[in-house]
């Protein structure tokens, strides 16, 4: 899952980015509104964490522009503005959730998970594909009841497939969810991670199917 964190307080941005990366999210940071607006025009994200008081371009204007382009990425406003009017305005402009600073990081993490489940039309925090199970609260996979050992990049690829189990996910989409802007995006590298994942999934009954020219999909073996 690839997140954009828009926060002009550098210390807070760096701390929160480290925290979210430790939770196995890919995180990109923008510290002014113009940079954030540019990234949202060119990059694809699973969720945006947006401050309102930003240099260059106000967070409300970023949100208005984003929704005017019919971009439905979930947006969580994280701001010091705590008046009811600010909350109502932010939600009316198209935000999906609103949190006030200072905040508890565990609550922020829970709200992120809830928004990601909502956008994937999944209310249950536990995803299953045959004997492969993903607990999105713990961000842990099990296979036939046993913990599944994965590298961070293997985890990111399998998470991308699991969140859309039964649906095709393009190689490009998997690559973009895996890499941040300071890394080269090489869609062909996804083939390596898929190959490794297939070997690790062999003891169970979930398989990754290649659809030539389209991408990959995760499904139970008996449906292949």
UniProtKB/TrEMBL annotation:
The modification 4-aspartylphosphate is found at residue 51. SUPFAM superfamilies: CheY-like. Residues 2-116 form the Response regulatory domain. Keywords: DNA-binding, Phosphoprotein, Transcription, Transcription regulation. Pfam families: Response_reg, Trans_reg_C. InterPro entries: CheY-like_superfamily (IPR011006), OmpR/PhoB-type_DNA-bd (IPR001867), Sig_transdc_resp-reg_receiver (IPR001789), WalR-like (IPR039420), WH-like_DNA-bd_sf (IPR036388). Residues 124-220 bind DNA. GO terms for molecular function: DNA binding. Residues 124-220 form the OmpR/PhoB-type domain. It comes from the Bacteria. Gene3D superfamilies: 3.40.50.2300, 6.10.250.690, Winged helix-like DNA-binding domain superfamily/Winged helix DNA-binding domain. This is DNA-binding response regulator. It comes from Geothrix edaphica.
């Amino acid at each position: 899952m690839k997140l954009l964190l828009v926060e002009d307080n550098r210390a807070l941005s760096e701390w929160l980015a480290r925290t979210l990366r430790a939770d196995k999210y890919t995180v990109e940071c923008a510290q002014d509104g113009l940079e954030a607006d540019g990234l949202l025009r060119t990059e694809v994200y699973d969720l945006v964490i947006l401050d309102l008081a930003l240099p260059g371009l106000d967070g409300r204007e970023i949100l208005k522009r984003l929704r005017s382009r019919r971009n439905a990425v979930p947006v969580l406003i994280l701001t010091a503005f705590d008046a009811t009017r600010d909350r109502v305005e932010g939600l009316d402009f198209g935000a999906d959730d609103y949190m006030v600073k200072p905040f508890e990081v565990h609550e922020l993490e829970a709200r992120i998970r809830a928004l990601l489940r909502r956008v994937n039309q999944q209310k249950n925090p536990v995803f299953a594909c045959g004997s492969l199970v993903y607990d999105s609260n713990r961000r842990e996979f099990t296979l036939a009841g046993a913990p599944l050992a994965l590298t961070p990049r293997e985890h990111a690829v399998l998470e991308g497939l699991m969140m859309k189990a039964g649906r095709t996910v393009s190689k490009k989409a998997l690559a973009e969810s895996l890499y941040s802007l300071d890394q080269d995006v090489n869609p062909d590298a996804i083939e390596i991670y898929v190959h490794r994942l297939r070997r690790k999934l062999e003891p169970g009954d979930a398989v990754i199917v290649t659809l030539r020219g389209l991408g990959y999909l995760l499904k139970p073996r008996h449906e292949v």
